[in-house]
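Sample 1 of the test manifest.
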Amino acid sequence: MDATILGLLLLDGVQNGVVYGLLALAMVLVFAVTRVILVPIGELMMFAPLSFVWLQGGKLPGTLWLALALGALWALLERGRGRGLPLAGGAGLLLLFLLARGNPALAYLAALLLVVYLGVATYRVFFQPMREATVLALLIMAVGLHVAYQGLGLVFFGPEQYRPDPLLQGEATVGLTWQGVLVLAFALLSAAALYLFFRRSLFGKALLAAAENRLGARLCGIRPEEAGMVAFAIAGLMAALSGLLLAPLINAAYFMGFMLGLKAFVAAILGGLVSYPVAFLGAVLVGLFESFTSFYASAYKEALVFLLLVPALFYQSLRAKGVEE
Amino acid sequence: MRRYLWFSLLLLPFLLSPFPFYLTLLNFFAIAALVALSLYVLTGLGGMTSFAQAAFMGVSAYATALLTARASLSPWAGLALGLGLTVAFALVLGLLTVRLKGHFLPLSTIAWQVALYILAGNLVGLTGGHTGLTDLPPLSLFGLPLDTPFRYAFLGLFLLALGVLALKNLRESRLGRALLALRGDALTAASFGVDPAALRLKAFLLAGGIAGLAGFLYAHFLRFVNPTPFSLEASIKYLVMAVAGGVGTIPGVLLGAALFTGLEDWLKDLLPLLLGRQGNYETIAYGLVLAGILLFAPQGLWPLLAGRRPSGRKALPQGEPLPPRPPSGRRGEVVLEARGLRKAFGGLIAVNGVSLALRRGEILALIGPNGAGKSTTFNLLTGALPPDGGEVFLFGKEITGLPPHRIHPLGLGRTFQHPHVFPEMTVLENAALATYARTRAGFVRVLLGLHRKEEERALATAYEALRRVGLEGLALERADRLTAGQQRLLELARLLASGAEVLLLDEPGAGLRAGEKRELARLLLGLAREGYSVLIVDHDMDLIMGLADRVVVMNYGEKIAEGTPEEVQKNPLVRAAYLGEEAA
């Protein structure tokens, strides 16, 4: 291996790694606030670029109808003024989609908002009604939604892969496109923004409090349901943005999100599903590991990534002590 | 014998013999039902789950395919290798995750499932890649080749009936009770001698083995293996079956397997027609059915049909109780001693240098205002928390830092501030949980049904204990139908059934009415007279002062007084702590 290849592998690894990192941050956030392990995050991530491609081609994507259907259920579950948000959001989304056909700038925004709306509606319809359930039941629900959304992705978009145009054309240096630079910059910025949000803003602190102790937070006037919706909205936003930015580099297809999400989840486990910085760094490590294994043993790279779970679990196992009550 | 009625499943092939298509479905049902049974062990009893049951099937299917089709060995060698490999893989995964919080195991199984699926598709030299391995020999029994769906169904259904019987044995055994208890509350189970990590690991291995058996059956039924039936989607399909039917009961998981085996075929034909395209659209239905069941019938369909009856046995035990263990030894001898116990939570010192000694046959009360460190002291004595400093001795043997499941068998039992009873078990089974450390039957004996005699004695012991506290009339009721006071009594009965002679009671009087409190006091005094040693934490001064021989008072993590109730009541430090009076 010479220096050029090494450089390319490093770049590739970091570029993928920061995206896994973003997904891992979203997973840790959602888990901390709602105890849901967000397995369908990969599907949410793929819905964004695929919907964008559809809109660019002047068609309305099926994801819009899925989002509106879940939004309608969400409105049914709410009472009184609580119905305003799903109804207004759904109407706004429909309008935006009608306007965005063939308009790339609006289509970008529409795809983004669609996934955020879909994320929140998913929480409200499927997870909030079972908020007292065990982590295990919530996980089973999440896995069920993953297969359902993946199947729907196949219905909506077919089995083909799509490569949307990148926002920025050309290469910064050999092996690094400007789009790749954009991905890196976005990842670092959003990690920093999340940090500031939780450390500096009152709302971010309230979210952390709800994650730490639901009853205590409720006594302080924080509604855990609201916290859950915000967590899903943030996760949806991060998934959609990473999906839109990454799709020009790796293509987008209905089935691709799951592997990306699984790698993020390996990273999240490295951080024990609690630590944000360890999850992010772990994700970069996963990206690098993957990039180098694909050089040496490309057929097995996807399988080898999961080998990283072994040391991660072993490390967590050493730290675990006592009997949980 | 009603339990052997399950073998009437073997009549099904005769009924379906005119319909070859349904005979094939019947074979698939038997295989799916075995996998669903493995999830009953994991999820229904153990409160864990696995998204890798199809991968376990796959390991076993490929093992037997390689040995028989490539190396021309006997299928039974394939079975042995298959089961050995699945259990070995389950052991690795299990060892890595059993000590972690519950969700790490299922999460890791997802990754494991995906990795194995990729390997099966890519290790072309070994597995034949996506084309798979063909020409597996048919199984043959007593010289009769099982080469038609009709003949093969007998083997599948026979193994299924055996599996059902074995798991019924498991449910009605010390191990089944311990697994159910672990799922509800690991600390309570551990304080009756259950080692949570070891028991969970064994349940995971058993479930892996059952799935491996199903994989073997699958491979020799189709006589062809490829990666598709061992994918994550397949694993999820099995989980959907079990959860939809009712993962907490054996008929439930069988119902789920039957429904979905039929449904799957129908969906595979219908959905592509509806959508006008080929593809695995049935996963959408699985996902939505799973979501609907979790939201609207979290217990599954079977409990809706059968009502909420306890799943345990319906008859009172007739056997001889386990050998009684009356407290023996000199009265007044120190049985439990703490020296200089210390525990800090971050900057807060909850217990600071507390020493106390409990003597045989006495009732010692530990009192103090809220936040004085009483409960922490309790947890340090019972092993629920490891102390930062100091030592604990039980019958003169050092037990500092031992986990609860190792302390209990030495003769120490505890109750909890909030009663910890298990609603899905009967009152009798709740009490019988306590005999875990006094009985021996392991997984092999239990699955083979060789534990019945011991089980009968364990239940008789539990029934004796219930009689002692006056709950014998409710023995076969579900435990969640008891009042708060009766739940306290049930916890006491559990201690008596456990054979422990050092009893630590955390606020046994909380939530009791005046009459129930008098009853409790009478019971405790009686036990002390027999030589039981009781350490009691409570807030109710009337109860404590009328009951205790000696009192230890704590405040701000330290012991501030010790003596008879009268002495303590006069102590100025105690009056200051409770009433806010200035200490003179």
